[in-house]
Amino acid sequence: MEPRDNRQNWFRGQGLWADTPDADWQNWVWQYKNRLVTEEQFAARMRLTDAERAGFAQAGGRLSVAVTPYFFNLINRDDPECPIRRQVIPVGAESVASPGESADPVGEEGTMPVEGLVHRYPDRVLFLVTNQCAAYCRYCTRGRLVSNAREYNFQPRHEAALDYIAAHSEVRDVLLSGGDPLLLTDAKLDYLLGRLRAIPHVEFVRIGSRIPDFMPQRVTPALCEVLRRHGPVWMSIHVNHPRECTEELFQATERLSLAGVPLGNQSVLLRGVNDDAETLKSLGHRLLMMRVRPYYLYACDQITGSAHLRVPVKRGIELIRSLRGFTTGYAVPQFVIDAPGGGGKVPVNPEYVETLDGAEGVVLRNYKGELSVYRE
């Protein structure tokens, strides 16, 4: 059972790397260079299941495996169903293609005027600035692009993308993603953010990153100074389970917040990871303690080989209903489906309106199931 949402219970420390000098452990470059990337490295530290060994056997042709020492410490090595383990260790089921799945489930390829720049919505663009991540989520919607496991050879075109943004005055919002933007050097981020801020019609700049979760050591004072200088730069982090809310992550989000970076969280609803009400409630509470607003809860995209991780949409609606009214509203994310084929994000909510056009007014059903009338 998960501990109460008290920071005294949060994980901290170096675990299996207790003998590593603190100067190395706190260095994000050391964390990146010492990632576990081979089956042999994992097997030396945990007992792999047959399904996991099958996953390693075929991962090289689908999506590479990589986990930082910091994040590996969060895995319960004695539990094959550990929610952290399920997110980053491959299994054989990834090789099974199910109906409706594809390598580009949300239709990004068809809306790229420049390689690495997605212009789907009228006033905003998605700027894919790198093809690398600190670790690889097994449900990654961009598995075709990141890690080069499939020899896709995606190469972001920064200057062409910046020129496109500058030439399109309707673009007021730019989201930097990838791969993970925070794997770029401080100097490169400083340059890209500076170029964007120099474009008069760009009003809103965001970064989507799982680096604070996978490698909080990357959130250095120098990085925070870059973000502060070009602020406000908004950031969406990616945390799926309360066990990921560690003392190290708390410190990283604290530094970001004090640098003026508004923080939100985007989770993915995953089977065996966060598909129960208590887990989602605990996650929301811990995020708020870290000054992070739960923003989106995504239905898992229909990426090829993800069926074993996807949760029925009906269950997602039930989970939101179990949160709304039973905890603070700030802790309740918006459940969304990124519509297949490029339809964009569609909110999916429980029904609280019983009658909208009745003569007696709007009939509402609250979180307890009680009816009331709002007279127009």
Account of the protein in words:
The chain is an alpha/beta fold and 376 residues long. It has one domain (7-353): TIM Barrel. Helix content is 28%, strand content 16%. It contains 13 helices and twelve strands. It has helices at 22-25, 28-33, 39-43, 50-59, 69-72, 83-88, 158-167, 186-197, 211-214, 221-229, 247-258, 277-289, 313-323; strands at 117-121, 124-128, 173-177, 204-208, 233-237, 263-269, 293-299, 334-339, 344-347, 353-355, 362-365, 371-374. The chain has a nine-stranded mixed sheet with strand order 1-2-3-4-5-6-7-8-9. Strands 10-11-12 form a three-stranded antiparallel sheet, with no helix packed on it. A hairpin with a 2-residue loop joins β1 (117-121) and β2 (124-128). α8 packs parallel to α10 (221-229). The longest helix has 13 residues, at 277-289. It is globular. The termini are far apart.
Percent helix, as a range, is 25-40%
Mean pLDDT comes to 94
Q: How many β-strand stretches?
A: 12
Q: Can you tell me the CATH class?
A: Alpha Beta
CATH superfamily: Aldolase class I
Oligomer: single chain
Pick out its properties.
13 helices; TIM Barrel; alpha/beta; about 375 residues; about 30% helix; globular; nine-stranded mixed beta sheet; about 15% strand; three-stranded antiparallel beta sheet
Summarize the entry for a quick read.
With 376 residues, the protein is of the alpha/beta class. It has helices at 22-25, 28-33, 39-43, 50-59, 69-72, 83-88, 158-167, 186-197, 211-214, 221-229, 247-258, 277-289, 313-323, and strands at residues 117-121, 124-128, 173-177, 204-208, 233-237, 263-269, 293-299, 334-339, 344-347, 353-355, 362-365, 371-374. It is built from 13 helices and twelve strands.
